Amino acid sequence: MEKIKRTERIAALSRILMSRPNEVMSFSVFSERFSAAKSTLSEDMAIIDHALRENGLGQLQTIPGAAGGVRFRPLIVKNEAYNFLTWVSALLSEPGRILPGGYLYLSDILGNPAIVRGMSEIIASSWYDEKPDFILTMETKGIPVAMMTADFMNIPLVIARRQSRVYEGSAVNINYPSGKGSIETMSLSRRAVKDGQRALIVDDLIRGGGTARGLLSLMEEFSVEVVGLSFVLSQDTPPRKPIEKEKSLMFFSGDGENEPLQVRPAEWITLSS
Amino acid sequence: MEKIKRTERIAALSRILMSRPNEVMSFSVFSERFSAAKSTLSEDMAIIDHALRENGLGQLQTIPGAAGGVRFRPLIVKNEAYNFLTWVSALLSEPGRILPGGYLYLSDILGNPAIVRGMSEIIASSWYDEKPDFILTMETKGIPVAMMTADFMNIPLVIARRQSRVYEGSAVNINYPSGKGSIETMSLSRRAVKDGQRALIVDDLIRGGGTARGLLSLMEEFSVEVVGLSFVLSQDTPPRKPIEKEKSLMFFSGDGENEPLQVRPAEWITLSS
Predict the structure, then answer these.
(1) Which residues pair with B265 in a beta bridge?
(2) Which residue from A61, A75, A269, B254 could staple onto B261, CB 3.0 to 4.6 Å apart?
(3) Smallest CA–CA distance from B139 into chain A, residue
(4) In angstroms, rounded to a whole number, what is the distance separating the alpha carbons of residues A248 and A234?
(5) Considering only CB atoms, which chain B residues are within 8 Å of A191?
(6) Has this prediction a pTM greater than 0.90?
(7) CATH of domain A6-73
(8) Cross-strand partners of B246
(9) pLDDT tens, B241-270?
């Protein structure tokens, strides 16, 4: 194709790189597509990277070597992440969300693309360095945020089910005690993950931690290492035994009946850079 | 903030616009953020729009008037969409995916972010003009593609459940006949949608159409108009009564036991522009 002007090439490169976060793309492919020398493309990338960083919009990372290239990653600016989660916390603290029995209505928040995208960017940014091979979630409400995190990290989403399903093939089932005292089942297809992989657990809510511990046992069955866990909301009261490598986005206390409901961003958000 | 060069401004604008597809953003906000005149920004937008269209990467649309501004939308180039779905069809036709009973293992495809993103872009692009207010899906396997479609359209995702859940509040339940002759239930929280809204149904699979008709009845209960339906995969044999306003991505025939499994892109894909 014909050569195009730098301004237009930068717009096209931005679109391609940003639509596939964390995917390393080779300079050769761009060089061919835009009939541009690699040195010219390097200058383009430096301009894009500078513009993104200066505006707190992300970063380009250049990977040297034969398998190298360039990749886009969101960059979470700590006070912006904190402000965003403070805003989401306020939405979650609205009294109208409290359902009989002290349950919180979350489905609208967990299906709002702007909110889910923002939360997923923060989760993805905080775990890139651990290089997980896939995201694991438990059906159903955590799937949207888990999927968008998988998209930002460019790794597959794996969904554990409440029971085995014929269209998942042979599966490993485990039983685990739920917070309510009953025994629940989770099931994962044998094909879904491989021995030796690294998992990042992403889900909507942690209360007593029963489901989280169930997911950890399930990963043990598959000889998969869990590199981290992120929940959108973590219950603060009553206090629970913390889970190792947990970075949840927000904490809540109170049930809106005996005690007012309070939601706040997690402390690590204000400490991350 | 300081003025920045056009090249950098274009990179930053591209990132902001493309991270929020279908959201109308006002020139005033950009004007303030980048200390740039609106006429300058109009030129920037024209450059970005031209670069995107020339490269089949999307488009910017300018909305005039007081509530106006500019929005990014993916633009599906028909032969690229066709090639992409031909490639996905080939992945789905692999003999190793056939499970006992003729079921297809789809979970890896439905959790692969690059594939889900590509399918969601095609679905979103084909329904923008119908202006749905939300995406409706039935748990579980369709949620990732439904969520990413919701993201591209900038509208909420609403998930119907197999049973009512305490954390969804009061719900409308309906019973519907499934393809297997049994009666199934679906449940949707009363708060999830409003009278008079427009729904786009997105799900992974349609065989006999029982679940789809269940979702249509559910929307009737809420006085919601269904403007369209898109399924990732639609079963061709045995033939079923077509559903009005259905645009599925791929069709399949055969069960891999008595007849070889064949998957192919839908015909409307090759006709869309």
Answers:
(1) B250
(2) B254
(3) A140
(4) 6
(5) 105, 107-108
(6) yes
(7) 1.10.10.10
(8) B229
(9) 889 999 999 999 987 778 888 999 999 987
